[in-house]
Amino acid sequence: xxxxxxxxxxxxxxxxxxxxxxxxxxxxxxxxxxxxxxxxxxxxxxxxxxxxxxxxxxxxxxxxxxxxxxxxxxxxxxxxxxxxxxxxxxxxxxxxxxxxxxxxxxxxxxxxxxxxxxxxx
Length: 121
Prior knowledge:
Blueprint: H1 3-43, H2 52-101
Helix pairs in contact: 1-2
């Protein structure tokens, strides 16, 4: 395996590990959200807040925190996708250049790359 292929494999392994860690973070956040829901259900009622606006404000604060968490994880995922797109685009471009210049007629130069004999080095 070439050095470039090893680098790409390490990149994919790192991305998979990052996704696994994100899944654990989401599990922990789901557990925390369930605890918050249970606490709110048991402690926040019309009797605990004389004004309904205060009760609404408390609920909105919790909701905003959950939205911020989801937004942060979404941005992290988008960043990973854009990074992988760049890597894959670069890989595709380098293969296209090798096919056009060094691949000969069967490797995709003049004939358009219609024949494929398996894995490329």
